[in-house]
Amino acid sequence: MKVLVIPSWLPFGEDKLMGIYHKDFTEALNEHKNIKANILFLYRQRLKNPLKYLFNEKEEIIKEKNYNIYINKVLNLKSINYKLNLYYYTKKLEKSYLKYEEILGKPDIIHAHVTLPAGYASAKLGKKYDIPVLITEHFSKFNSFFEGKNNKYAMYALKNSTYSTVSNYMTEKVGTDCKVIPNLVDTSEFFSSKNKNNTLKLVSVSALRPGKYIDVTLKAIKILIDKYNIKDISFDIVGDGELMEEYKKLTTELNLNNYVTFLGRKNIKKDIAKILSNKSILIISSDKETFSIPGIEALASGIPIVSTRCKGPEEYIDDKCGVLCNVNDPEDMAKAIIKCSKTEYNINYLKSIAKKYDKKVVIENVYKIYKDMLKGK
């Protein structure tokens, strides 16, 4: 079965994390014995330097571990006109697809990620060339796709595809026909260390950008130290982003430099696995998450989670694997951390939850969806 993956985002440009999951997903697809997948990606470049765009190479092929990424560079015209930009993107995708088809033939399935722009443009492409299209929505603000000027394009994508989301709560917006394809994790990479000591070791794996609320965790730690006299504590922050300097400044202002360590971005899963292996609790502090892969990675490492009630993680966190707290509430988070730290968790149970999201399980489910789509073609 030949699958063409068309993501709205990939980790090019300034944000090296944006869309990185789509690469992991495509790699996992190719590990299935009956699937051969490649990525076709339109890299949208801003209008800051149109002359540079004119003289740059427009096409590139990147060879990954078991698949290729076919990149076509296009302009992002969103700042000029939204409707024009989507029309332009759709036409460019069709042109890029036809070149791809000349090289590798017609795919059996198009699997687009995120409704706009890739999902909509892929739905148009699939209808014109008689190719079944599966769209998977990941975006935390996906509700905005079904509102205002976006609505008619999102509804077209919804009605002309097999539509899926990464969490059950997201299906409420689009109806009962929506499928759920959760994010996948290679659980075999994660392990639990036997060398844990009595220090309360907290960790966060997150981009440092608005909506992640790492500052709330810092304030919660301050409360744990000052109010609850918990001194034997540490907090490792894995990730980087636009708010790193602001969070470092806040750490200093709160006199937490002896407790908090900024580890920066870790692109290799083995590095993240090693960090998680000897931690006590993973913290998720976001206002909204469609899924939160680090949560599953933590459970695969045998460590419980303290998470805000931010939707996605609530679907796999129960009282046997973690504690939920209010969004943007340092005091409530501090209490949740204390409760979590005093609870004895069954490591085998934690890992059993993670296994439900193992890449082999998720990809087998995706393969069944692909087969059903082809039967209904």
SSE blueprint and pairings:
Layout: E1 2-7, H1 20-30, E2 36-45, H2 50-55, E3 59-63, E4 68-75, H3 82-104, E5 109-113, H4 115-129, E6 133-137, H5 151-159, E7 162-165, H6 168-174, E8 179-180, E9 200-205, H7 214-226, E10 233-238, H8 244-253, E11 260-264, H9 269-277, E12 281-284, H10 293-300, E13 305-308, E14 322-325, H11 330-341, H12 347-355, H13 359-375
Parallel strand pairs: 1-2, 1-5, 2-4, 5-6, 6-7, 7-8, 9-10, 9-12, 10-11, 12-13, 13-14
Antiparallel strand pairs: 3-4
Helix pairs in contact: 3-4, 4-5, 7-11, 10-12
Structure description:
With 377 residues, this protein is of the alpha/beta class. The chain has two domains: 2-184 and 359-375, Glycogen Phosphorylase B (Rossmann fold, 3-Layer(aba) Sandwich); 187-355, Rossmann fold. The chain has 13 helices and 14 strands. It has helices at residues 20-30, 50-55, 82-104, 115-129, 151-159, 168-174, 214-226, 244-253, 269-277, 293-300, 330-341, 347-355, 359-375, and strands spanning 2-7, 36-45, 59-63, 68-75, 109-113, 133-137, 162-165, 179-180, 200-205, 233-238, 260-264, 281-284, 305-308, 322-325. The strands form two sheets. Strands 3-4-2-1-5-6-7-8 form an eight-stranded mixed β-sheet, with helices on both faces. β3 (59-63) and β4 form a beta hairpin. α3 (82-104) packs across α4 (115-129), α4 (115-129) packs across α5 (151-159) and α10 (293-300) packs across α12. The mean pLDDT is 95.
